[in-house]
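Researcher: Structure for this, please.
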Amino acid sequence: MMAETTTPPEWAETLLRLSLKATDCENVSGDLLEEYRASMVPSRGEAAADAWYVAQVAGFVWRTTWLWALVFSGASLARTAYDWLVPTTDFHLRAQLSTDLGVALLMVIGLWAGWRARSFAAGVAIAVVVSQIAAIISVVGGGLLFALLATPDVRRAIDGSGGLGEVFGMPFMMIIPALIVGSAGSAVASLGRKVRSSFVG
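Model: Predicted structure, token format:
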């Protein structure tokens, strides 16, 4: 296959477009595709060029999501540390507050990403990606917290608050609310764009 007609992985192209501002999408994706075809495929071969392209996309996605992921995982780690250091038998208020905060963050992320990309799919995709990057950060952070704080009292608090399994497994389950709430946020962005265009037009 000629380099001029070779295409990078379709899923990576799609993810790149969803992670960019609408105003930057054509230029960035076009420049990346041009370098992929003109330089990477001829010099490295298709498989290595694909790997290069995916790495470039990962960089763009990271730059779009890292701050949101840190905020999201920070909220989760703060709740974990509080449960360990200030144990209780009644988690209702804590659970309600952390759930409300998580939903609010995912809603804002979906709205923000959907608005900037002018795409409903972008809001959903970015909310999901943020939730899973945050999950990795939360698991690493949870491990560090355990290493630093694991006194006998803290171990008893951990057992009483759901155990380490919850600390290391629950963050990845946030993909489900990310899909739902991210969709809602992106839908609000889509509606907002329609309302705005009706006034501007």
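Researcher: Any notable elements?
Model: The chain has eight helices and no strands. Residues 64-200 form one domain.
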